[in-house]
Design goal:
There is one protein chain. This protein is about 25% helix and about 15% strand. With about 200 residues, the protein is an alpha+beta fold. It folds into two domains: about 90 residues, Roll (Ubiquitin-like (UB roll)), CATH 3.10.20.740; about 70 residues, 2-Layer Sandwich (Alpha-Beta Plaits), CATH 3.30.70. The protein has a five-stranded mixed beta sheet, with helices on both faces. Strands 6-7 form a two-stranded antiparallel sheet. A hairpin with a 2-residue loop joins β1 and β2. The termini are far apart. The mean pLDDT is about 85.
Amino acid sequence: MVNIEIDGKKLTAEAGSMIIEVADANDVYIPRFCYHKKLSVAANCRMCLVEVSNIPKAVPACATPVADGMVVQTSSDSAREAQKAVMEFLLINHPLDCPICDQGGECELQDLAVGFGDDDSSYCENKRVVHDKNIGPLIETEMTRCIHCTRCVRFGMEIAGIRELGMLGRGETAEIGTFVGKCVDSEVSGNIIDLCPVGAL
């Protein structure tokens, strides 16, 4: 067991556990998209950035193990600034179609954009458009909404035990899709719809 401090709360945590797990167990909220307690850590959304003493930059809470004497700030100025910057990057290409989105009102991105977003963006370029894919009979896609959290990919590999989805391409051209024209037809594939935080599936 190690002694740590999160937002002024002195806590005891199991050695090797991640900051986000300790925070969740002690009712300290840290925003996140890619993290899910039943899936492996991807640390690719970066929404859970927090400030840790003696570390010069904000670190992802989902991928940073606790250490004895660690002092974590989840809502300090530098942590909030990092979280707002991540939110701005996520919204660069996300369509502004909340009123007609199936996930509208239940969307994690929408909720966090209210708390961590800004009403002004420094980006004025056109948003990218990703053509919808037919990935199977159970799932309808709106892939322009995808924020590449990879929850759907990790669910298939780790829970369902079937590698049906993957990340294709890199950078701005990255897309979630099936491998070589296959379709998602596992009996548990409908579960990825609930895992998606933004209504892309």
